[in-house]
Amino acid sequence: DQQVKQNSPSLSVQEGRISILNCDYTNSMFDYFLWYKKYPAEGPTFLISISSIKDKNEDGRFTVFLNKSAKHLSLHIVPSQPGDSAVYFCAASEGETSGSRLTFGEGTQLTVNP
Amino acid sequence: DVKVTQSSRYLVKRTGEKVFLECVQDMDHENMFWYRQDPGLGLRLIYFSYDVKMKEKGDIPEGYSVSREKKERFSLILESASTNQTSMYLCASSLWGAPSGRRDTQYFGPGTRLTVL
Q1: Are A49 and B101 an interchain contact pair (Cβ–Cβ within 8 Å)?
Q2: CA distance A112 to chain B (A)
Q3: To bridge B94 with a disulfide, which of A40, B26, B106, B114 should be the other Cys (CB 3.0-4.6 Å)?
Q4: How far apart are the C-alpha atoms of A40 and B39, rounded to whole Å?
Q5: Backbone angles phi, psi at B82, to 5 degrees
Q6: Which of B94, B95, B108 sits opposite A44 (nearest CB)?
Q7: CB A103 within 8 A of CB A91
Q8: In 3D, which of A22, A27, A21 has the Cα closest to residue A84?
Q9: A99–B94: do the CB atoms touch at under 8 Å?
């Protein structure tokens, strides 16, 4: 039972254009969402997060959008750079308890071409 | 900066061997986690721990056990390694009671690529 799904295993974009990575979830109890980036042979690193009380959170070139009614979130990267090429994981958690377990999606491999 | 270290980057073991994967974090985090990452399956939680000597099963605990004798150290044990346990193993830690806006952020180690022959 995959509660967090990233339906696109890969995405390829040109440098300077927008990258849009999508994520869907089924558990309505999820109330906090995170995106992680992972380079080969390294652990994932935290990128950006959003609470369910918001519908948008922005940090520099990265913006996360949350549509609770559709149980969908997306990560926008503008402008995309070759160094953004990595696997991106969407993750979700439920409840007020800090440090609670995360449920991850399958990941999307983003390739930004120069 | 949070630092999570894992004892080995690459490990090759034989079927039936007992395997220990060690993880150490230096930020006094209460929570520690073990995941495995496989292509097309993302990160799957094996075990986690909220405190010393405390452990909880994740989504795929079968064939694994854990030990947390000290706050900074969380060990994953494969009692009898099998070929289907060939994977990338990732350890993570997080702070209990993180400030608002950083809740549930987990910090990961570099991973251990385990091959079981």
Answers
A1: yes
A2: 20
A3: B106
A4: 12
A5: -130, 160
A6: B108
A7: yes
A8: A21
A9: yes
Q: Which residues of A touch B51 (CB under 8 A)?
A: none
Q: What are phi and psi of B84, to 5 degrees?
A: -75, 0
Task: In whole angstroms, give the CA distance from residue A110 to residue A80.
Answer: 10
- Cα gap B15→B12, rounded to integer Å: 10
**Taking CB atoms and an 8 Å limit, are B97 and A99 in contact across chains?**
yes
Q: What is the DSSP letter of A82?
A: G
Q: Which two tokens stand for residue A78?
A: 């503008």
Please state the φ and ψ torsions of residue A38, each to the nearest 5 degrees: -135, 125
Partnered with residue A5 across adjacent β-strands are A24
Distances (CA, A) of A88 to A15, A95, A105, A106, B98: 17, 24, 9, 9, 23
Cα dist from A12 to A15, A19, A85, A111, A112, whole Å: 10, 8, 9, 5, 6
Please check whether residue B91 is in contact with residue A21, taking contact to mean a CB–CB distance below 8 angstroms: no
Residue range A76-81: mean pLDDT, rounded: 98
Q: Token pair of A91, please?
A: 């993750």
Residue B90 near residue B9, CB atoms below 8 Å: no
Per-residue pLDDT tens digits of chain B, which is 117 residues long: 669 999 899 999 999 999 999 999 998 888 899 999 998 899 999 999 988 988 999 999 999 999 999 999 999 999 999 999 999 999 999 886 555 545 568 899 999 999 999
A-chain residues within 8 Å CB-CB of B110? 41-43
Look at residue A98 in the predicted model and tell me its pLDDT: 41
If you count them, how many residues does chain A have? 114
